[in-house]
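Hi all, posting the design record for the shared folder.

TITLE: backbone redesign
STEP: 1 of 1
STRUCTURE INPUT:
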């Protein structure tokens, strides 16, 4: 049976790839042989926070995929279709690293002091090679030294966990200096890997209610994202329609 090719769905002015985890992993692995690729996971917060530099994310070396039920709702309203699969970084990233096998040599950047170290220890317990790690605070202040350290580590994949829009801006500003073949903005992934934040129970994940579980755990930090910012997100998407301008 022929596999359905990935599709570009415009949303909020961004070109979002509708694909599957297996297709995306294969595409990234193939790209590593001849180009550097930036992979970003677009949820409602991404669409709102990254508007000011969206044109810098429109090129053949940048892949943006959908993350979350809000993206599905907006896509149905505008395009009367849905994404082929929900591709959140928390689930896709470990899958991709395992698929890479011997090619995986990952550098972790971001989160509070101590988190990246514990996340690295977890990945190593899963037989994924870690080239190095730095927190997103004091260890990230000297940018040029940080870039030199990442390059010296021989990392093939760099995971940047700074939240939207900071991780996307950091990648855009420094990707030309980085030798790693795959750069990924992964949000709270390191917190999950380190065990600092719990994943939602499986029933919440199956019902696409992981966002509600996180809201219950961190109401003061996330209440705006899931109320006012949702309204802003929907307005942006409806105004942009099917356009990428």
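Okay, here is what came back for every position:
SEQUENCE:
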């Amino acid at each position: 049976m022929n596999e359905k090719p990935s599709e570009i769905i415009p949303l909020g002015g961004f070109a979002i790839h509708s694909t599957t985890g297996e297709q995306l992993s294969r595409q990234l692995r193939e790209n590593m042989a001849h180009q550097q690729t930036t992979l970003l996971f677009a949820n409602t917060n991404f669409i709102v926070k990254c508007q000011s530099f969206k044109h810098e994310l429109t090129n053949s070396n940048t892949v943006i995929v959908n993350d979350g039920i809000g993206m599905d709702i907006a896509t149905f309203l505008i395009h009367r279709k849905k994404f082929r699969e929900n591709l959140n970084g928390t689930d896709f990233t470990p899958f991709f690293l395992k698929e890479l096998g011997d090619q995986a040599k990952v550098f972790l950047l971001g989160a509070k002091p101590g988190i990246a170290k514990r996340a690295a220890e977890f990945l190593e317990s899963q037989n994924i090679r870690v080239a190095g790690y730095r927190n997103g605070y004091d260890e990230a202040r000297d940018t040029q030294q940080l870039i030199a350290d990442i390059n010296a580590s021989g990392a093939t994949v760099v995971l940047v966990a700074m939240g939207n829009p900071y991780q996307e801006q950091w990648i855009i500003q420094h990707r030309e200096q980085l030798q790693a073949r795959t750069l990924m903005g992964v949000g709270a992934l390191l917190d999950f890997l380190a065990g600092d934040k719990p994943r939602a129970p499986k029933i919440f994940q199956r019902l696409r209610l992981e966002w509600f579980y996180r809201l219950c755990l961190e109401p003061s930090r996330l209440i705006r994202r899931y109320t006012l910012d949702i309204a802003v997100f929907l307005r942006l998407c409806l105004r942009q329609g099917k356009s990428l301008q």
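COMMENT: The chain has one domain: 7-198+207-234.
Let me know if anyone wants the other runs.
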